Task: structure prediction
Amino acid sequence: MPARTEPVIHAEHLRKRYGSTVAVADVSLTVHRGEIVGVLGRNGAGKTTTVELLAGLRDRDGGTVSVLGLDPERDGAALRERVGLQLQESALPARITVREAVEEYACFYDHPADPEELLRDLDLLDKAGTRYADLSGGQKQRLSIALALVGDPEIAVLDELTTGLDPQARRDTWEVVERVRRRGVTVLLVTHFMEEAERLCDRVLLIDAGRVVAEGTPAEVAARVGAEQTLQLRPSAPVDPAVLTALPSVTAAQPGADGSLEVRGSGTVVQDVMVALAAAGVRADDVRLHRSTLEDAFVRLTGAGTGAPDPRTTTPVEA
Amino acid sequence: MSATSPRVLARVTAVETRLALRDPSNAFFAILFPAVLLAVLGLTMPWSRAPYSETDPLLGQISGITGYTPIVLTLAVGTVALSSYPVTVATYRGQGVLRRLSTTPLPPSRLLLAQILLNVGQLLVAAVLALAVGMLLVDVTAPERPGVVLAAFLLTATSAFGVGSLIAARAPTAGAATGIGMTTYFVSLFFAGVWLPLPIMPDIVQEIAAWTPLGAGSQAMLDGWLGVGVPTRELLVMAGWTVVLVPLAARVFRWR
Result:
């Protein structure tokens, strides 16, 4: 578990506009050393701009930022020594080999990581002599992570890491991120894959239209849209729903046409239902539990779904 | 910080050189083109063995092909500095290679410098090759003052690379760099005397040419060939372009 030490990234009320378009209206965030923090949002929500402001790649219009105690706008050069970035829409020259790229990037830094070790860690050793243009999508992403880590950074910013990867490559990449954390690197992960955030992040930040609309652990953010759980099961003998609705943790119990039973509730609902069924001498088969996920929260809070959006989060942003 | 050390510049130059040599068409143009052009002109053009000028006694001392050699060298410099170099950097920009580099401590000037060093290196090889072929195959006579020719050649390259750097610093895509580069290229070649030898052009054109990098370069090299003294003004003009344009390009450089 991450130690709650001094924050390595602290930003308050960040603002950035491009012409008349407001990319970031009001984003505040704090990241502690050793954490993996996810920045979630739809395309165009302002995730990448937020990251670029934190890294000093763009100048902010307002707000304050401190990264490792430095101001990215003023101390950009010093910061680039200590923060590794993997950005969208970046590439390497088509004819450069994996090893050449990692070794070249290593020499830009005062205290680089060992290129050989990185290649091994990221499963790129057997591709070391391959040219960039001949790599698969997953290999390019792993190389991109290697380059973000080659300066032996204290913070790694990984933007849309697994976009465009097949499910297996995506899972492999997640493994890599977990290994990065074990190296003691703080990770800021920009993504729109909820599964990725649930799997990797200690905390997430939901951004919509340039504002933070929810923040917390993935479970906390998911609970924002209702802590209710839905339990589906097939009882070995008919059960009177009234027996279950009498339980304090159960809000509803509904028998299905095919003999199944759907029970909704919160808190200890799973345990309570199982105990009650056992007391009635009934066995529960095919048990399935659905709890509200980060995805539900995402859809609800960012107004990405078809349901009525929360007016507070979708008001046109004027900075 | 280590990113600004000469060791990093050497490394980036080495990598960029390897990448350039992996591109066959680039390698041909940069290294073989001037020699091939000189040989073809020398072997096929009837004027190549006639005196360079019927009227000017000084220019009449050298053959047509010898008089055209500084122009071929200028052409070689212009091709690389105004075409291949800015297009390479703009391609990097269009593909996101520069965006990737912008997250590292490497200053943009190092990438431009590495590209310039690599290209000037290639040009030197190309020039030596062109001279060897010219002298052995088509009777180009050796320059009277090789030192002046060498200095003029290097300054032609650095000043032309200053112009190319400005294009490289800003052009958003390879297409844009090609467009701007080629326009500049053809105008420069006019002033360098590629289309018509400078000595037969109107005075006003000669006067303007003397202030352009390739025009001054071509003239200074010819002076060195003839051994008519040190072309101070031309050398200073080219040095001026270099010290103004290269730092300016580094300053206005765009990563994206």
Confidence is low (pLDDT under 50) at residues 305-319 of chain A. Chain A touches chain B at residues 55, 57, 77-78, 80-81, 84-85, 87, 89-96, 100, 104-105, 107-110, 144, 147-148, 151 (CB under 8 Å). Chain A has two domains: 7-223, 229-291. Chain A has twelve helices and 13 strands.
